[in-house]
Structures are given as structure tokens and as C-alpha cells.
Amino acid sequence: MPKDATPDFVAALAADIPGLAIRGEPARYHEEPRGRWAGRGPVVAPGSTGEVAALVRACAAAGVGIVPWGGGTGLVGGQIAAEGAVPLIVTLERMAAIRQVWPEENVLVAEAGAILADVQDAAEGAGRLFPLSLASEGSARIGGLLATNAGGTAVLRWGNARALCLGIEAVTPTGEIWHGLTRLRKDNTGYDLRDLLIGAEGTLGIITAAALKLVPRPASEGAALIAVPGPGAALELLALAQARVGEGVSGFELISAAGPAFLRETGFDIAMPMDPMPDWSVLVDLGLGAGQSAAEALEGLFEAAMEAGLAVDGVLATSEAQRAALWHLRESIPLGNRAVGAIASHDVSLPLSEIAGFVAEAPAELARIAEIRINCFGHLGDGNLHYNAFPVPGRRREDYAAVKGDIQRCVHDMVAARGGSISAEHGIGRLKVADLERYGDPAKLSMMRAVKAALDPAGIMNPGAVLRPPQRG
Amino acid sequence: MPKDATPDFVAALAADIPGLAIRGEPARYHEEPRGRWAGRGPVVAPGSTGEVAALVRACAAAGVGIVPWGGGTGLVGGQIAAEGAVPLIVTLERMAAIRQVWPEENVLVAEAGAILADVQDAAEGAGRLFPLSLASEGSARIGGLLATNAGGTAVLRWGNARALCLGIEAVTPTGEIWHGLTRLRKDNTGYDLRDLLIGAEGTLGIITAAALKLVPRPASEGAALIAVPGPGAALELLALAQARVGEGVSGFELISAAGPAFLRETGFDIAMPMDPMPDWSVLVDLGLGAGQSAAEALEGLFEAAMEAGLAVDGVLATSEAQRAALWHLRESIPLGNRAVGAIASHDVSLPLSEIAGFVAEAPAELARIAEIRINCFGHLGDGNLHYNAFPVPGRRREDYAAVKGDIQRCVHDMVAARGGSISAEHGIGRLKVADLERYGDPAKLSMMRAVKAALDPAGIMNPGAVLRPPQRG
Q1: How far apart are CA A137 and CA A135, in angstroms?
Q2: Which of A231, A368, B152, B435 has the fewest CB atoms within 10 Å around its CB?
Q3: CATH number assigned to the domain comprising residue B327
Q4: Which chain B residues touch A182 with a CB distance below 8 Å?
Q5: Is the dihedral of CA B182, B187, B190, B195 positive or negative?
């Protein structure tokens, strides 16, 4: 079992690694966005990959657990060790350089501590786009985004964090440095350990830098909010859009009436593009090449959708400001959710052809447990729904404490029965360890445990995240 | 160390697994395309995933090595165990079903033994495209294509085999079945073992089925052969093309004069689109959406390239037959190479901005070793060059036996010095085990060995491929 990161241990680390910044125990490293857990542990900030390797070796020798810390924006507790031995929290915030940009290769190398928005800016400065985009991009850091294989609103076109990474530099759980910062598009020299460390949530090593894929900036961009009869029609609309502009569909976000309603109910001053907002709508975002017009493509799509009965109303953004306003509405939905206070949140994905059935089935199933409100929204093009349960007016989330587990179980059982995932983009962290055991494939779990034990024999890397630590003695 | 797959062992297998087809020892399972090695071992053909699991358990218990067999088209000996204990060859050819197609999800599930061309046909039958495309598509099978993370001519746009796979069903080295045939676009439930098994060349398990990504068929396709001043200009032409049509560039293949010359020299009757063929040319293939014209886009691109000094001549395919003829020329180049007889073949990749320097530097460096001819061609958009050395007229490959190793070392050293890969798409197999040890990152190699030992403790999965078996006793 891991040992506590004691003051003596930290003092010895500081003496051995002169460049290491000792941060004490600031509260912000013990908090997480949803307020579910309180962490513990001293915080250190290495300034170089060599220092990361040195401290990992010291932790491995002493049996002290490490919690790697990015921007602290994770939603499943991967960055918070509330139980077990007191860990050493290792923040990568001092390693935030954009090391180099190769615009002609569409590659940028950033250190793990670089904030996503800064990477986006560096790409823009080189005339390119780094397409990873999510609500926390002003504080989330590259290391954490890769460790959690972050998703967001541009996955449909450009893939998740894993798909945007060509190579990584990382420190292994035994304190070796893997110099894997390749800028190659093709490299079949051995096992794909890059993709193994990406998404491992810091349990198989610490990513210290990454070679990231950039893409050309679309020449013409535009967005529309299109009211649709329901999620099934929305998916047909997506197919129609892709048949017309191919990969030009950059975003396809589902919005249900509950999202805007919660924003109004809790006093957010956000302009609504339609009044009343429809039961179901999609935010369609296009990014097209030179010589094409996103506005014309959206108009054509909308007309074709109306003819096909896939659209009932629509608002086309005719300026960049209007497009930004549509996206602002979409990205504000989680704020309204937090203000209302969710009983239970679910980050699920489904095979595309199972979505309409799930959305039709779920409310009645859940109504048998409790009277609730549902906000169903998310990245429809990826099959990724955020399916969250809320109190009815006049009641509070606390009133549902007794049925919260039943609601989660009900949603996850329905999703699993349809071949879906109980964590589409947020990961496992510490919140979903038991869910992974319940819903995960047993052979895959066996292989995961074997890989973890092989690469981290001392069990020091983010103990308790993703996999339950082995019981000893 | 593994034990021999004896006649007694095979007889016991046959008795235990009634459905298993016993193939004897047909020569074709002991051969490979380049004629470098001769394999050995009895061949069995399971008819179901359960039978694969049963035979793997039997091999694990007996310590008998397994060589998984796809279409036998690999170029690095991954399917041929010429040394060590006699293995059991397990062909997946009886498991060749297309289990299901979901056109509305752009997903197809195929068994490992399905031939690539049959998968392409099934996708076409559903109005979709399975974009993986390579010269051996008439015999290569899905299991082998995934095990080697196959590349080919469509990687630029759609990625390699790994990028085209959503989920796999596989038998682990301990004989468990991993039911991982997800059709999900996003799933962050635990370690990415799918991408670990893909590209592991059968050393970490046997893929028995895969959920594959389909894409919409482009509405308008076209191709052009454009003569360019050199590889550097060709890469600028690629950037120009992508700026104009974005992801619409489906293929971008470099052809040097040696390829067509070898075809003529060895008597292939292939029409040449230009006479004489230029020193350097690129085959540009476009696939565009509805309402766009690939022919017009190619004309516009060619004019812009001429203006920018990136093109010196060009032939636009104005019919599908002409487009097919251009591709036929490109795909015939390996035939000419084989007819001439390469001294040494290199499947390398480079960062895009290093390609022009490498191509300029390499001939002079190699000329210091021997007087040779070079055919440099390949998937330029991916940074993937096939850089092959041939005898000068009047000499034979055998005359160069003494310097073959020096030539390979020289090419690989130059590639490694520029941050490239010594195996871009063909894999490691048995041919490049020592190269991987020489050029691979030591920390990555340590992790690979740890993963192999953890997942395949009996060392039975494709022994000797990718990693040298541990020395014991």
C-alpha cells in the first residue's frame, strides 16, 4: 500500500531536486468543479522533465503515491485522492511552454502545463487551428486533456484529444523518460503506448509534453440553430448535412428545451434565438474551404431539411457575433444545470441508431423511480449525450438523496443494454471505478489490471483512479 | 521457451475442439511475398471465436507458440516463424463473415478473416466507403490489416487501419474473449487496449472481429498526375491543394522516374501518361461532396500550381477509366521493383519538413557505399517514403550482398537523425526486431517488454515477432 507524502519526504525531495518548487498545501489543489470530494496532500511543481523523472523515482523508492495535476477541471475525481495514503500532488503548471510550431507540418509541440486556450492561440498565430474545444479551455491543461482523452464540441470532425496527438514525452512509473515526441503521421515501430498513456488518467505515467496536430483554418465558417422534431430527425439531419458538405460539419450539438429553461429560471441573462425555444434543436456549425460559403451551405441545408420534414424552424447566424451567440448559449447550458443542481449527471454515448430509442424510453423508466426533470443535451454527432436528472420545481436535489443511486443505475443499465458507454468523454476517475467494474468487459478489465501492475509495479501512479488498488495481505 | 506444435498436440486439439479444421502443413502458409523466409508448422482453421479461445487456452497450457495468419501479405515476416520451436499456425480464413452493416451509423462489423476487397464491396453495397486501400486488398484480411495497423494510399484523408476501427473482439493470450465490438465514437471507459492490440502484430492476442468505420462515398472524384520540380515543391503543392479543398484531398502519392522506368525495363505493358515520365510527379486524388466538381477543382489547382512554380506539367484524368489508369500505374510500381530485384527496401517516414532534405542528401551518402539506383516513391502526404535501392544495369542484387547491410544502416541512420521512423507502415515483424532495438526509445522498449510479459506470460503469441523473446535459464 502507498505511504503518506510526509513533510519529511517533501523536505528530502526538495533537497534532492533543487529546481523543484514546493507549493505547500494550497486549497485549490484539493478542490474539484463539482464539489464532491476534498483532496489532501502537499503540492510540488517541477520545472523540467528531468525533475519530473527524479521525483517519480523518489516516490517509487519510498512508495509514495502521485496525483498528477493539470488544470483541475476533471469531473470524475481523477485529480482528487480523498482516501488512502496522502499523495504527493504534482502540478505541471511550470512546464507550460509552446516548445515549437511547424505550420508547414501542421504540428505544434506543447508542454503538459500549457493551457488549451494558449495552444489554440499559438496555432492561430501560425495561421492554423488546434481544434480541441471545450467549456473549460481557459484553464484545462494539455497534460490533463490528454490524460483524460478529452472530448468537447469538435470531436465529430477532428476527433478527441487522442486523435489530435502525434507523439508524447512522458515519465514512466519507474521514473524513466520516454522521448516519444514524434511529429510523424505514420510510425509502426512497436506497440501503441502513446494511445495507452492517453486516457489512462495519470495511472500509467506522467505526460510531460505532446506533439499536437494542427489543421488548416476553415476559410468560411457559419452556424445555425435548427429546430427539429426530435433526436431521430436530428440524426437524419446530420446525415443530410454530411452528404452535402462532407467533413465540413464541424459541430452538431443537441439542445433540449430544458437547457435554456434552466438558464432563464436561474437568472442568467442570455439571449434566446427563438422564443419559445423548441423542445429539440441542434446547433450546426460548418467550416468550409476556400471558394465555398458556409452561409449558403446552411441556407441550402435548412431548405432541404424543411422539405424532408427534418426541420420545423431555424435561425441562421449571419455574422460572426451571431454565431458566437449561438455557441455561448450552448456552452452556458452547464451553468444553468449547476444553478438548478443536478440529482445525477450521466455522460453516456450510444450507437447512433440507438439514440432515438433511448431518448424515447428513458423518461418513463425514470418516472417509475421519482418525479424528476431531465436535461438531455450534448454532442449528438458523436452519439454522446449528457443526460442529467434534476428536481421538479419546489424540490431540492437533497430531497432525492435516497433515489440518486437508483436513477444512475437505471440510466446506465439502459445505456449498457443498448451497447453504449457509461463514460463517453469524462473518464473513470474515482467516481466511476465501481461502474467500470459493473459494466466493463471482464477480459478487458483483466488486461487493464495486468498492464497497470506491469508498468507501475509500486502502484504509485494516481492510486485509486480508474482501477481499484489491489487488496494485499 | 515455447514447445513444438507436434502431431500429437494437433491431434489432441482436434479431439478437444470438434469444429476445428485441421489443414495439415500446406506450403502456402510457410511462404511470404518477398521470399526471405520459410515457415514451419501445422495449420488449423477455427470456425468461431469460441474455438479460437479454446485453442489459445490449449496452447497456453502446453506452452505451444501461435502464429496468427491473415492473408499472408505482410512484408516483414510477422506471419513466418522460421526459427525457434515449431508454432501452430492459426488461420482466420473460416471466420470471414460481414456480420452486420449499419449504414446510418457508418459502421460495419467484419470477422478477422474477411478479405479487404469484400469489406470494401459490402460498404459499397450499403452506399458507403471503407477507405482502407492498398495493393494487396484482394487477399489481405481484416485481422492482419489491424494487427499490422496497415496504411496504404488513403491514410492522408482517413487514417490508417487503427483510425478506421471503433472496436474489436479478441482472444487474449490466456484464452479469454474480450467482447469489445463497440460501435461508439466516444468511449472513455478505461485503457485504450483496442489501439494496443491493433499494431501489436499478433503478439498480444488474436483479433477475431472488428467494428469498422465507414465514410460517405464522395459525390465527385477525380485524379491528376502533376509533374513537380521535386519533393519539396510537391509538399507545397499538397498545402495548396488542402487550402483549396480541405479534407477533399484523398490521395497524394509521389512517383519518381525510376518507377515507370523499371516497369518498362522489365516488360510491363503499362500506358504512361507522360512521355518521358518526369523525374518527380505526384498523383493527386480528390473526393468532393455534392455540388462540387473534382475535375474543376483539379483544373483550378493545376493552374494555381503552375503560377506558383509548383507544377511543370500535368495530366488530368477526365474519365473514371483515366483515373483508374493513373492509379494502376501507381500501384504497379512495386511489381517493377520486384522484377528488377531490390538490394534493400526501406519503409520510412519523416517529418514533412525533413523530406526534401533527406531526398537531397541520401543519394550522395549511398553512392559512397556502392553504385546503385534508387526508386523513391510513396505516400508523400503522410511523410511515408518507400526508398528502395537497386542494382545498376548489368549487375544483380546478389552482387551487392556484402553492402546490403551498410545501405540499410545508412538509410535508417539518416532517417533517425531527422526524427523519422524506420517502419512507417509495414511494422516490425521479424525483419526489424534488431532495428527496433537499435533505433527505438529505451523507455518505450522497456514498457513494451513489460506489457508483453504481463499480457502473454506464457510467451505463446507470435513468439519472436516485434520483440526478441526473453532469454531464460
Answers
A1: 6
A2: A368
A3: 3.30.70.2190
A4: 419, 421
A5: positive
